[in-house]
Amino acid sequence: MNYDMFDEMNYFTNLNENNFQNNNNNMNISPTTLFNPYEGYVKGNLFKNLYETYKNFKPKGISITNERDEMLLNVNQLSFARHELNLLLDVYPNNTEALNLFNRYLEMEKTETKNYERRYGPLTITGEIDTNTPFAWENDKWPWEI
Amino acid sequence: MWKYEKRLQYPINIKTKDLRLAKILVTQYGGSNGELAAAFRYLNQRYTMPDNRGKALLTDIGTEELAHVEMISTMIYQLIKDASLEEIKEAGLDSHYAEHGKALYPTDANGVPFTVMYFATTGDPKADLMEDMAAEQKARAVYENLIDLTNDPDVLGPLLWLRQREIVHFQRFKELYEMYKQEGL
């Protein structure tokens, strides 16, 4: 996936100002940029200013061996980025930049989820599900199985 | 109401069994600083948060912790599933096997069973959020201890990833704590 359009964007430049105006709270977070969804997902942290490594350990990366892995990675990374913005918005509900990006990632996540489900079966019981027997929900491996 | 997603939050594929590691990793399932305690600490505290920021944040982080319970459970399952009885005995897991076979059971690394004492709820929003900040720090520290004790990349990947989640959660709790303090809530 191509996230170049997000790389140069700084969604937090005006974070302090916006929150002072809208929430009247004394938030003290330094302006920063976000990792793109893939980078953030691999690291487990979407926020560049919060990312701190342990000793010299580097993220191990996501191994992709087939198309299914790749399509699931698309769902996972967008879901993760959307969730990170979800947690931020819980605390700063009036942050317009964060909400716009949340909405954008959510739409992309929905598309990627449908793409995956149509090929490999439902990720949720209300997802894209085959109407014929056998029951598609219980088909195939469960997440803890290799 | 909750809805299950049939995927892990971060993929886990452990190819090499390791009973010694399973025996200590279980603390992030059933220990005092583990994911199960975190999930229900937050979900239990959310009812008495003074506003929607607190209710939303505790609901959403509590829900994410349930996904971490699943990740840790998956790791333990995969580390144990192919072990022989001989290996189980050698690793000192025969007492676990006697009670639970190869099933999962939430304890800390010393075998002490999970207890609701770990929920630590006062009903005071600032005290509870401070507790949650401490919980995230302690879980981060335990992840670092566990990272020191393995060199399997299949295990290190998810542990490093989960450690980052503690850092992000700590930050969000801290921000909300500061707001509540400022606003006198």
How would you describe the overall organization of this protein?
The complex is a heterodimer of chains A (146) and B (185). Chain A is mainly α and 146 residues long. Helices cover 48% and strands 0% of the residues of chain A. In chain A, helix 4 (67-91) runs antiparallel to helix 5. Chain A starts with a helix and ends in a 26-residue tail after the last helix. Mean pLDDT of chain A is 84; it is low at 4-31. In chain B, 64% of the residues lie in helices and 0% in strands. Chain B is built from eight helices and no strands. Chain B has helices at residues 19-25, 27-30, 35-45, 52-80, 85-90, 94-100, 125-148, 153-183. In chain B, helix 1 packs antiparallel against helix 4 (52-80), helix 3 (35-45) runs antiparallel to helix 7 and helix 4 (52-80) packs antiparallel against helix 8. Chain B is elongated, with a radius of gyration of 17 Å. The model of chain B has no long low-confidence stretch (mean pLDDT 97). The chains are: A mainly alpha (146), B mainly alpha (185). At the A-B interface, helix 4 of A face helix 4 and helix 8 of B.
Main sheet properties of chain B: none
Largest inter-chain interface?
Answer: A-B, 46 and 48 residues
Based on CA atoms alone, the radius of gyration of chain A comes out at 18 Å
Enumerate how many helices of chain B there are, as a single number: 8
Radius of gyration of chain B: 17 Å
State the major sheet of chain A: none
State which percent range the strand residues of chain A make up. under 5%
Number of strands of chain A: 0
Helix content of chain B: 55-70%
Helix share bin of chain A = 40-55%
Q: Pairing-aware structural class of the strands and helices of chain A? A: mainly alpha
Order of helix and strand elements from N to C terminus of chain B:
HHHHHHHH
Residue runs with pLDDT of under 50 for 5 or more positions of chain A? 4-31
Uncertain runs of chain B = none
Shape of chain A: globular
Kindly report the average pLDDT value of chain A: 84
**What's the β-strand tally of chain B?**
0
Oligomer: heterodimer
Q: Please give the count of helices of chain A.
A: 5
Straight-line N-to-C gap of chain A: 25 Å
